[in-house]
Amino acid sequence: MNAPTFRPAIAPPLWLLAELTYRCPLHCPFCYNPVDSANDRTELTTEQWFDVMRQARQLGAAQLGFSGGEPLLRDDLEELVGEGRRLGFYTNLITSGIGLTESRLARMKELGLDHIQLSFQDSTRELNDFLSSTKTFDLKARVARLIKQYAYPMVLNVVLHRFNLDHVERIIAMALEMGVEYLELANTQYYGWALVNRDQLMPTREQVAHAESVVNACRARIGNKMRILFVVPDYFEARPKACMNGWGGVFLGIAPDGTALPCHAARTLPGIDFPNVRDTRVKEIWYDSDAFNRYRGDAWMKDPCRTCDDKAKDFGGCRCQAYALTGDAANADPVCAKSARHGDVQAIVMHAQRTQQDAVWQPAQPIVFRKNPQK
Ligand code: SF4
Ligand code: SF4
C-alpha cells in the first residue's frame, strides 16, 4: 500500500535570504554561487531590496540573511540592515570578512544587526590564501577580533574538503583561541563551483571518519565552551538531507538580479521559469508561482519516494542533486540508498579517491577557481 499523500497548507516563508551580489573578492573553488554568475551584471537597487523586505515581512518572514558573494561589497549594506531591523527582522550577515572595517561594523551594531557569520578557508595562512586565491588570512583574523570586540556571538564557518579535513583539530584550536562560540564545520556539498571541482575536493571515507572522530573527542574535551556542528558530506550518507526543509517550505532566496529561488542552486534546474521580484509580488511568487509549487507536497514524487514512509521527513532529498546526478529533478536524491542510482554516488566517491590518491594541493586535475562577475 502506498504511503499516504501529504498536501500541507502552504505556510508563509520564515527565512528571507538576500543574496545582495554575486561579486566577491575571493575565488573559492567550492563556492555555491552559479558558475555562470560572471554574466550577471544586474543587481537590485536599495529601494527594490527595501520593497522585497517589506513584502516578505508582511507575509510573515522573521529571519533575514544578507549574503552573496560578499555582501560588504554593497555600499548600501548598512541601509539594508537598518531597514531590516526597522521592519522587525532578526538580521544575519554572512561574510568572508573582507571589507568589514571597524567603522562599518560600528554602524551596523548601532543599527541593530543581530548576528554575524564569518568564514575562514582553513587554520593555516597558506591553505586559506591558496583556496581563496587572495592574501586574506591575517585580515580575517583581524575581523574576527573586531567581531568579538563589538560583543557579537562569534560564529565561524569553515567549509571542509580533501585539502583541509586533516586540519580539523587545528581548526578547532584556532576557533577556541578566537573565542568562537559556534563553529560550523560544513563538508562541501557539490553545487556550483564545488560540482565543477568535485573530483578535486572529494575527500576519502577515511578522512571523513577520522575528522568526525576528532570532532567528537574535542566536543568531549571542551564541553559547552564552544558548540561544534559537523555536517557530513551528502555523498557519504545513506539517506538524503531534508533539503531546505522542503521545497517552498520555509526558505525564500532572492538572487542579486531579483530572481526568487526556493534554494540557492535551483536555477540549475531546466524547464522552470523562476519569477522575479521586479515584476511579481512576493506573495504571488510564494503561494501561486509554478516554480515554488513545482516540488511542494509529494504529488510530483516517483517511486521509491512516492511509496516511502520517510517522504514527509526528507521530502525525497535535494531536487538539484537529483537533477545533477540523474538528469531528472523528480527522481529520489541518489544519495539515498533506496534510489536505483545510489551506486552512481558511490562510484563518484570511489573515482575521486582513485584519481586523487596522492594529491595534496596539486590534484591530478587542476582546481578551477571561482570567477567574478565583470561589474
Ligand atoms: S564561497 Fe568564497 S568565493 Fe564564494 S561567496 Fe563565499 S567567500 Fe566568496
Ligand atoms: S526513498 Fe525518497 S523519501 Fe524515502 S528515504 Fe529515500 S529519498 Fe527519502
TrEMBL record:
Signal peptide: none annotated. SMART domains: Elp3. It comes from the Bacteria. Residues 10-225 form the Radical SAM core domain. It is an enzyme of class 1 (oxidoreductase). [4Fe-4S] cluster binds at C24, C28, C31. Its cofactor is [4Fe-4S] cluster. PROSITE patterns: RADICAL_SAM. The keyword Glycosyltransferase does not apply. Binds 1 [4Fe-4S] cluster. The cluster is coordinated with 3 cysteines and an exchangeable S-adenosyl-L-methionine. Pfam families: Radical_SAM, SPASM. NCBIfam families: PQQ_syn_pqqE, rSAM_more_4Fe4S. Catalyzes the cross-linking of a glutamate residue and a tyrosine residue in the PqqA protein as part of the biosynthesis of pyrroloquinoline quinone (PQQ). This is PqqA peptide cyclase. It comes from Massilia cellulosiltytica. The gene is pqqE.
